[in-house]
Amino acid sequence: MGSSRSSLRRVPDGQQLLQETGCEPERWFCLGLRSEDLEAELSENPIGDRIVGAFFQPGQETVDFPSFVRVLAHFRPTEKNRTRDGVQPEPANSRNRKLKFAFQLYDQDRDGKISRTELLQVLREMLGLQVTEEQLQSIAERAIQEADLDRDDAICFDKFRKSLEKVDIDHKMSVRFLE
Amino acid sequence: MRTMNYSSTKRALAVLITCTFLSLPHGCNGESPHKPNAGATILPPTKPDNGPQAYPEDVPSNLPVFTMDYPRIQIPFEITLWMLLASFAKIGFHVYHKITIWVPESCLFISIGLIVGAIMHSVHEEPPAALSSNVFFLYMLPPIVLDSGYFLPIRSFFENVLWFAVVGTLWNSIGIGMSLFAICHIEAFGVQDINLQENLLFAAIISAVDPVAVLNVFEDISVNEQLYIVVFGECLFSDAVTVVLYNMFSFVAEMEVVEPEDVFLGVARFFVVGLGGMGFGVLFGFVAAFTTRFTSRVREIEPLFIFMFSYLAYLVAELFAISSIMAIVCCALTMKYYVEENVSQRSCTTIRHVVKMLGSISETLIFFFLGVVTITTDHEWNWGYILFTLLFTFLWRGLGVLVLTQIINPFRTIPFNMKDQFGLAYGGLRGAISFALAFTLPDSIGRKQLFVTATIAVILFTVFLQGISIRPLTEFINVRRTNRDIESINVEIHSRLMEHTMAGVEDLCGQWSHFYWKDKFMKFNNRVLRRVLIRDSRAESSIVALYKKLELQNAMEILDTVSGDISAAAPSLVSLEQEKKESAKPKKTFMAQDLKNMHNLLSKNMYKIRQRTVAFTSKYALPNDNQPREILIRRHASIRRSLRPGSFQSTIPNSQKYFSLPTGQSLGSKYPSARRSYADDHETMSEVAYPTRRSRFSQPKRSSSGAMMPLHRLGTLKEVPSTDFLNESQGESFGKVHSKPRTGSSHSDSRFPAHRRHFDPPVDNNNGSADDVRNEDEAEEEQQRQHRGALRPPPSWAAEPRDDTPRNPLLRQPQWNPKK
User: Fold this and answer.
1) How far is A132 from chain B (nearest CA, A)?
2) Which architecture characterizes domain B130-477 according to CATH?
3) Where does the chain cross the membrane (chain B) (predicted)?
4) pTM recorded for the entire structure
5) Interface confidence (ipTM) of the complex
């Protein structure tokens, strides 16, 4: 454990980061070396720019290491049998926070709802060429219909979470090495 | 519906009757003592009458008009008949589809074998003595193993497959051997003469797991991927381990006295055999890869190299008595990676198909023989021994899985829960390998018959009972599945979004190259291996030809998809639109048909994620290669986007290379035929085709929605007269056709970031990222090739997105650096 202590000292807010994310900072150092490959793969990803955008706080143009770590902490596998007292804040990798991350990928303007246009944008990015605009509209329409409780043509976070309750989020949104 | 069932039943009946008739000649022999002396197989002549003793005694005075000479063709004839029979059986099963859902194929083959055996037995015919040790090990086993090895996902190594296979098999065999030896001491069973070595030998034989049936079931119910991968990989490696153990123990069993040092030597030998096999395999793999580097002119025999080298690896390993299975598997794994880059598209497909075919036939035949032999050999049945064997088999497998999972679970991201472990334990069916090993036991083993009987009993029990029951059981206990239920549109969209997110995040984290050794290996790979083993300067034509081939396939697919979907989906959607306009209701009601269409649309059109885990590959089917096409479609999308107004300036001449089908023009016209005729050429560009396509060119539609059938073809570089922007790229190996052949295309798997990055990156740095992907989705081997093919032509449009400054600092890269 000596090594981790020393690395904690090196990282600004190391102790706090450890507490927040539950993960030792030395692991995160390796991430810095990877930047040149980022672009290649992310550009392949249909929502690549959204993902990258999620790392930035609104209005900021740069991301520093702690924020980077904080965002990535969402993707740690969830530990099921950790006892939490009420004092601790919700861990970064809880199911709720994972869902919130996904929600924010849709919700670029951070108003707490996925509006129809936002949904359409995402759909357009994810779908191929063969889908016409009308089909896209119908799909978006249907999606909102299913999830919309308060008839305001948008999906709120609660309904988003509810519609995904059967999906194994923990499995889906966990990255292996972030132990 | 009823008529359909009726007709399919009729068909099934017809096929089954045909099968029976085919097998009749085998059994139909009036004179059993007349065994033609032409060799090992003893099938009777096909004519129901007196047959070949109609040799006239006297010299014929006239020219005989009609003669028959059966013994000459007997052996190949009988082999062919057996294979045909097996294949007909296979057709027969799939005709009536419902059977294969409930009864695994292995059961069916064994049943047919049993029937044929019964027929043969009733006419006192012996089974073909063709299944000797040599025939099995030299001819029947290699195709099966090659089949498994070629399609083995590399990722399985990371899923602790080796652990389960090697340690598990060891555990099983030693455990079963020891307990059986303990049983032997009980006098009541009368098996005291079996000593420890023989018990261990027998235990090694029946610990070979062959969960073919299980894999089919798992795939049908979409069990979670980790479990699937472990079972898949374990099957393969347990075969290897078993054969090694078998050889060891059979050697030991023939020794009179076993010293302690022999045990030590045995362990050492185990490692030598295993690692030696791997080493040989890798060596041969490299040689094969190197050879294919030079085969650009002799495309037709490219598949031959693959098969010959793998087989050679197998044989040489057999020569040195090291693990030939490991050799051939490692050879296939190594080879596949490099060879699939060197070799043409057609050869690639050929190789895969032939590998699958050979493996399938081999396995079928073995199960067949199993059924036949069951009936026709003399059995030595010993209740105690056999029942205890069954018991111990289950017991030790269950214990083994339990213990091993407990040990390995803390190291896994997603640990196996109890249901997974149950699936793993229950999926331990025994199969072809056990049977063949038992059947070819040396006769010096005293109780060989007992062993054979016991093995057959175990196999039959596991295959029939477990094979048939595993499906209801796994559904009942609800093994954790991959979530393939489509519950609602919402879920589907959101799930897909999350998957994309995860793929992106993993890329960010460098998940796959996080492992230090892997990183190092990848660097070594890029710098050294790829330069040596992969063809350096590829003929431009082949790249472009590959790309064109892809395009063609893509076009065909769009044709199929679009015509189907539009016709189905359009009416309802159109009617909905009208409804909307009329009533101006805020809510549309969606009919079930619309929902179905939507789901279809989504599932067909959503970009699939870069594979994080291996795709489900059935043992009897080829892996799915939709992904490379999809990447291609994505490229087109980005190209289209980049062609939107505002980005045109100097790119107009370049955009001449986009062939797009204006909307409204039917695809059924000359367009496909032109492409089809193209495809008939050997991978060279056809001069003829180009002018026709060029004439059909029109400005690409820029509206994002209107074009329903855009068919963008990145023009071949042949038509690019201007090379100015290409000059800006530094040392780039874009296969410019006739103007500037570039070299250094060991960066062949470049992933060219379409709309963001420009032309300057030397492409080899993308190796890292692409390699990561490749290493994780071995099942989609084509991806890399077609990436390369897809990426070569891009520079023509590369000039345009200059105004699209990267929005994120993370992505703003001034210069690509090759991986250090």
Assistant:
1) 5
2) Up-down Bundle (1.20)
3) 107-124, 136-154, 161-188, 227-249, 269-290, 311-335, 355-376, 383-404, 424-441, 450-470
4) 0.56
5) 0.78
